[in-house]
Specification:
Length: about 350
């Protein structure tokens, strides 16, 4: 039997035009009320179908029920004012109007558990569900109550842990926390970032993952990447901490990036989700280009620990482009699987 390299998506997929304006990040919903609720359910089925038809082995919901990967979760928490927003600088890169923490934060009802139950019914294979990580959450808010990034991160970690345990109970196999902020605030990552992430994943009966990327292909991120020089060594600060952590999987950006592949060596023993699809371009990778990234990664990670993945979410792309990229990802993983024999 050939060794099968698993494949997964980082998180989001494009939404149908009847659900949200296509090829736009954080696009508002096109429907309201019950019609919107039903449309989200329908879109999730399509998104799962696209992944299954492409041959992806770990299936996600494509984040079809979320407008934003952080604020849609925060939206349902208590202690946050969504009406009187304030402007903050996100990851030291771009300004955004964000909600304000005005009281102790807590979770009422579960946020994504119904989505997870629906996803569970759509495939018998392994499923992954994404949540924002504590540090990235606090970086997408204005804090007018805790007056401490660390204290607020611990509060969010407890809330995330409640949610994650319910997702695991609903049959989710991997819960991934998105922490692009880990690529920016290295001192905080060392002091409390990894610890709060572990708190969010504490006691889970399923696997845990963390996604650390260089962001969607928006102008602010592209400019930031251009300022990072010939070698992107940000992961070098974070990976040794993650290697010693309880987190099982690490999702990272590799295709068309300047990340030295040997940094993956620092994650020895963990599952590594290697980004082999560039989400910042409409150019479709060839299967050989995907295979090339996976082959280079295999020098530093055992096949059973390697997953072919996307660099980041694909929500800003067209559905046609995203589907073609999914197919390229699977075709590239199959080339490498055959080579492994
Ligand atoms: Zn990402």
């Amino acid at each position: 039997m050939t060794q099968k390299i698993n494949t997964a998506i980082a998180g989001s997929l494009p939404k149908p035009a009847w659900l949200a304006e296509p090829e736009k990040l954080w696009a508002p919903w096109q429907l309201q009320g019950e019609a919107l609720a039903q449309a989200k359910v329908d879109a999730m089925r399509l998104s799962v179908d696209d992944q299954l038809r492409a041959g992806i082995t770990v299936i996600g919901d494509g984040e079809q029920t979320r407008q934003h990967f952080v604020t849609t979760f925060i939206d349902s928490l208590r202690g946050v004012d969504f009406v009187n927003r304030k402007t903050v600088r996100i990851r030291n890169r771009y300004d955004a109007d964000v909600p304000v923490v005005i009281d102790r934060v807590s979770r009422g009802d579960s946020v994504f558990v119904e989505d997870a139950k629906r996803l569970r019914l759509l495939t018998k294979g392994p499923i992954k569900f994404t949540l924002p990580g504590p540090m990235t959450m606090i970086d997408t808010l204005y804090d007018d109550y805790y007056h401490s990034r660390e204290k607020l991160a611990w509060a969010f970690a407890e809330i995330l842990n409640e949610e994650a345990k319910e997702l695991a109970a609903a049959g989710v196999d991997i819960i991934q926390f998105d922490e692009p902020a880990f690529n920016v605030f290295f001192d905080e990552v060392r002091d409390w970032g990894v610890k709060t992430l572990e708190r969010a994943a504490q006691g889970l009966t399923c696997k845990s993952a963390v996604h650390i990327c260089y962001g969607y292909g928006i102008e602010a991120n592209i400019k930031w990447k251009q300022s990072l020089g010939d070698e992107w060594r940000q992961y070098e600060k974070v990976f040794p901490l993650l290697a010693q952590s309880t987190i099982d999987q690490v999702s990272l950006e590799c295709q068309n990036s300047r990340v030295p592949m040997d940094l993956i060596e620092l994650l020895r023993g963990k599952d590594v989700l290697v980004g082999a699809i560039d989400v910042a371009t409409n150019t479709i990778e060839t299967p050989e280009q995907v295979a090339d990234v996976l082959r280079r990664a295999l020098k530093f990670v055992e096949p059973k620990h390697l997953y072919g993945c996307t660099n980041c979410g694909m929500v800003p792309l067209s559905r046609a482009v995203a589907n073609a990229k999914l197919q390229a990802l699977v075709a590239g993983a199959e080339i490498v699987s055959k080579e492994l024999g």
